[in-house]
Each structure stands twice: as structure tokens, then as C-alpha cells.
Amino acid sequence: MYNFSAGEPDFPTPENIKEAGIDAIKNNFTKYTSVRGISKLLEAICQKLKKENNLNYTPEEIIVGNGAKEILYLSVRTVCEIGDEIIILAPHWGTFPEQVKLAGGKPVIVKTDDFRPSAKEIKKAITNRTKAIILNSPNNPSGIIYTLEELKELAEIVLENEILVITDEIYEKLLYDETKHYSFAALDPKLKDLTITVNGVSKTYSMTGWRIGYGAGPSYIIKKMADLKSHLSTNSCLISQMAALEALSGNQDSVKVMLSEYDRRRKYICQEFQTQGIEFIKPQGAFYVFFKVNPKFDSLEFCERMLEKFQVALVPGEAFGTPGWVRLSYAVELDDIKEGIKRIKAFFA
Ligand SMILES: Cc1ncc(COP(=O)(O)O)c(C=O)c1O
Fold it and tell me: Which of 21, 185, 202, 280 is deepest in the core (most CB within 10 A)?
């Protein structure tokens, strides 16, 4: 079986981070912590946001959670009242609309032909029930990164309509071809009051199983998120917090090594798809190639057939609000990618 369906790095967690986890256990860092996380980690997150994202936050404006996923849910659950609308841009990670529904809200999906954010389409989707918009750049599944101009247009709409922004920047370090990532909240000082920035260590440091994510936002929202979290999951695992502290403040060489391997795979797949005439979006970030299926089949049927006949697992675009497209994760060894691509090409031939 050639599995290209997983959204998780295939590398082991870097040694220095594993060591920090082991040390944490040996040194009895095994108890409850404050709900928002240990102060050393909150401070390290503030420093990281300042240095890398040009964002100024104090520890009171930070919350650590069980992965970016918990932070996203706490954000949505905190800002959304029953019947509120939350705008989500397609293609989108499948969890976004489900979390909005869980919070009693209504996901409003905005889709454009080129999968880029369109100020015009977003404006059309805004009603008096619109509470927030969820952004995700670099994007899962398209690998698209929003440009500074696009983000500035979004910022204008957000400020004009006073809606909140939940910006999921979990893939921010996985960038190719000199592309730049811009943190939404850094675009204008006024955006800080309206933005919850969500990030985590899962993708950058291959730490999916450690379950550490974090959010930065206005202190009144962060406090409400912490109140909710205190009755939901208390603190996030202290051992993992200690490992995340090493991830954020320790040696960063492993990130470069993983990125260069992703890039090698990305180039291989793009080259192969190009020669086969498969329509796809060249990823600027993250580790997914989003491609269009043979018009003879819909994407669900395509993925079913690829699995049954060719033992290749992919994710149909239906999961991301964009039928007709398929996501291939290249967080998989190059040899397996080569065999998988051969099989996909055979299907297209
Ligand atoms: C866009 C996006 N946000 C968040 C997550 C979840 O991250 P975490 O493992 O930190 O919960 C994923 C994982 O697939 C993702 O694709």
C-alpha cells in the first residue's frame, strides 16, 4: 500500500527534542501545570512571535493547547454564538467547518476558481451574522501561500466590518522557492485586537503525537479560551510542553534538513505531473500536491479506484470542499513516491 493520505511528517522527532522529553520525565516534570501552559514556554512563544512573525505579545495573551486543533476549537467555541456565521475559504482543512458546527455556528464556504482569497467574494459572503473568518496560509490542501497584497485586502475588509480572524499558520516554516509567509496580525497594529494567531510544533518539528499547539490573541479572548480548556482538558502534557520549549528555542538545523527533503520530493512530483499533463497546483508551502482528476471520474471515485486497483491512498477534494481535486501528501519517502506516481500516471494514461 502506498499511503499519500496522511497530513503528518514522516521524519522522527529531532533528537534534541526527544532528549528534552526524556529529561522532563527523569526530572519529574510530570504534574499539572497552569491551564495556559508553563511560563517558560509562554515566554518562548512570545519571543518566537516577535523574532519571526513581527508580533508583540505578552505571556497573558498566549495559550498552549493539545495541538493547533484544540486551539482552533477553543477559538471558534469562544467567539461563536449559536447561529453565528464563520467564513471559511475553500479548499479548506476538513476540520474547520466541523468545528464551527460543533460550536453551534454556520460555516460559510467561499470558493474561487483559482483557490486564492478574493476580497470581492468574501465581501459578498459577509452578513450581519458574520463573526469571524478562518484563514490558513500556507494552505492545506492547496499548498498556496497568500501574498502580502491579498492579505492587505483581507485586512481592509476585516477592519471595515470589525470581524475576527482566526489565522492558522501551522505550515509557516514549510516554504519553497524563496516564498515569504506573512502573519496576518502583523499587517496593521489595529488587527491585533481582532486576530487569533494559531500555530504549533506538529508540522515544523515532526511532533504530531506530542500534541502541542498555541494561540496568540486579545487577552479577553485568551482568558475565555483558558476557562473553557480548564474544564475540558486542564493543561497540555507537561512532558510535551518541555519538548516544545526545546523545539522553539533549541537548535533549528533539523527543520532545514526536513524542508530540503520535502523540496526534493515536491520537485520530483511536479516534474512527473507536468510531463504527464496532469493539472496541479505547484505547492509554495506545506507538503501537499493538489491535482485535478481525470474528468471521466469524480474525485471520490478516482480515489476509490486508486485504492482498490493500485493500492494508492489519496484524499479526495470532497474532504476540502473542492470536488474534482485530489490531495497527495509528500510526507512520504521518495522511493514510495516514485512507485505511487508511476501508478497514478498509469491511471491517467
Ligand atoms: C491546516 C491545519 N491546521 C491544524 C492542523 C492540526 O495541527 P495539530 O497537530 O497541531 O493539532 C492540521 C493537521 O493536519 C492542519 O492541516
Answer: 185
